[in-house]
Amino acid sequence: MSVNKITFTINSRSYTVVAEETTEYLEKLCAHVNEKVENVLRGGQNIMGERPLVLAALNICDEYYKQLENNDALKEKTAELKEKNGRLEREAESAQEELDMVKSGQVSIDEAAMRAEVSDANEKLSSANNKIKFLEGQVKSLKEKIAELEERDRKREQDFLDLIDKQ
Asked: Structural domain of residue 14, as residue ranges?
């Protein structure tokens, strides 16, 4: 790849950049930096020396990190939409299969509707079974805790009775 060299001016200082990127791209970067420095100079009061460059760099970093966050949010949304799209494609395939069976006479419309209801009921049943397993775990945990508390109470009661006997 060819190396490009460009000289540009920011805040009355000349800089030379050598890079593999195109001259147009480098000019675009330089213009962006220059614009940020000019914005800092317009907004500040007697900002001199390196301060405008540092503040412009901070503004550019701010833009960069906000874009990264936006990119991450878009990736998450894309993943969610892909998952939803896959689910919808499977539902569409299932509906098409049912429609094909109805058209071929293998299944009546009533049977197709019942199959859809059975499929929906199976999903609800699976969800309910998962909830039941979770609740059974909670019940087991609570029973263990009750047993521990009862044992602690028995020990306290015995200690209390022993204390009374000593007096």
From this structure: 1-107
